[in-house]
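Morning F.,

Quick status update on the modeling queue. The single chain you submitted on Monday has been processed. Sequence for confirmation:
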Amino acid sequence: MRLPALRLGLLAAPLLAALLVGQSAAPAAAQGRFAPGPCWFTPPEGEAAACGTLLVPERRDRPGSRLLRLPVAVLRSTADTPAPDPVVYIEGGPGASVFGAEEPAEERMESWWELSAPFRRTRDFVLFDQRGVGRAEPDTNCPELDALAAPEPRPSPPARRTAAEEDAIRACAQRLQAAGVDVTAFSTPAIADDVADLADALGVPRVNLFAISYGTRVALEVLRRHGGRVRAAVLDAVYPPDVNAREEEAWLSHRALKRLFDDCTASRSCRAAFPDLEARFRRLLAKLDEAPTEVAVGDPMVPLTVRLDGRTAVAAVLEAMADGDSLARLPQAVDAAVRGRLYRLARNAPNPWLGDPDTAEGMAFSIECRETVNAADPARIAADRRRWSWAAPATGSADDPGRRACARWPAGTREAIERLPVASPVPALLLSGAYDPVTPPEWGERAAFTLPAGRHMVFRAAGHVVTAGDPCALETAAAFLDTPDPAAVRECRSAARPPRFVTE
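C-alpha cells below.
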C-alpha cells in the first residue's frame, strides 16, 4: 500500500545551524543518535537543506542491539523565522522509499521541493527513509525478486512463476539473516519509535506529522505511543490499525467498482454512452475466467503480453481507479473491453510478479506478514469472499501470493494492543478519496471516531492519496498544520464535485 506524496515543515534556524556543525541542542541521550553529514543532492537556487543520519536500535527490547542508519533530509522553510515545530513526512508502502532506490537523487528531490513548498512557507519539511528502505542501512530490498519482475514478452506459466518466486523469497530471507539482519525487527511500532527518536535528535519539543497510506498507520501508532510529542497530524488515505485489509479484500473491490458503476448510472451522458455497464462488466469477468485471453500491450519494438482473466481484469480497473488521473476515462475503457477491445484495460493490469524495484520487499514482507496476512481471520476472509465474490472472482484460489510469501518469510507476531483503535486528543485532518480501492473513506471515518479533535474530508472524484492529485487538498493540509483547528478547515470545491466521465 503506497503511492507518491510529500510535504513537510520546519526547524528553527539556530537548530538547523547546530545540526550542520554537529552541535544539536537535543538532550545528551539523543545527540549520539544523529550524525550530521553532507546532502546527496543539490538544493535548487534559493533553497537550503540540512542532512544527516539517524541511528536507531534494531531491537529496543534488547540492550546493546546494533544500530540501523536512516537517512534524513530537512528541507528548510522559506520563512524568515520558521515555526519551531517541523513537519515530519511518513511515507506509505510498506517498503517505499522517500529518496528512491533507483532514480537519480536530483530528479527525485525535484518533486519534493515542489510538493513541500506549501508547508515550507512556515516550517521545515523533514524527510527520512524508514528502516530497511531505500538509502537506509541495511537495505532489505530483494534483488532476487526484482530480477523476476522484469517485463516478459509472454506471461510465464503460473506454476513456473510460483516456484521461481518461492525460491527467490527463501534466498532473500537467508541472505539477509546471514548478514545479521533481524527481519522480525521491522514493524509499525518500531517505525513509530524511530519517528520519536527523530524528533529527539532534531531537538524540537513537538513535531507535526504528514502521512499517506501505510504511513498513516505509523502516524496513528506515533499518536498512541508518543502522542505528547505531536502538535497536529494530517492523515491522507487512512489505514487504521483495527482493520485488516486481507479480511476485507473482496469488499474493497466491490465498493470501489459499485462507486464507479453507480456514478456512471447517475450521469446522464455516461449512462447513455455506456448503458448497463455493471451487468456487462460482470459478464466479461465470467467470460475471462472461462477463457483467459492474452493481450498485447507493449510497443511493437518491445513486445509485451498480459494474460487477462477475471481477477486480472478487476485488478486493472482498481489500478486505474487508484490513480485519479485515469478515472475520467475508466467507464470508456471498461465499455471498450466489454466490446472486445481489451488493450486499454489490460495495460493497467499490475505485474503478476511479487518483485518491485521501487519496494524493499524484505521490510514489506516483515510488516505485511506480521500485521496483515498472518494476523487475518480465515473465517472472516471466507465470509468476505462469499458475499462479494463477483468483485474478486478468483480470490481465494490456490495461487495466493500473500500466503505463499509469508509461509517462507520469518516475521514477528502482532501484539493485541496494536489492533485497538487509536484514541488521541491531537488535532488531526483526515483525507479520503471516494474512489480509493485501497484505503476507503469508511476507514477514515472509523479512525476519526476516536480522534475527538479530528476532521474527516472525503473527495468525491479522488482515488488513493488525495494530496497527490488535488492542489486544494494539499493547500488545505498545509493550512491545517498552520492552524490545527478542525472547525476552521475550509472545504475544497473539488471535494464535493463528482467525476466528469469522458464519453466520446
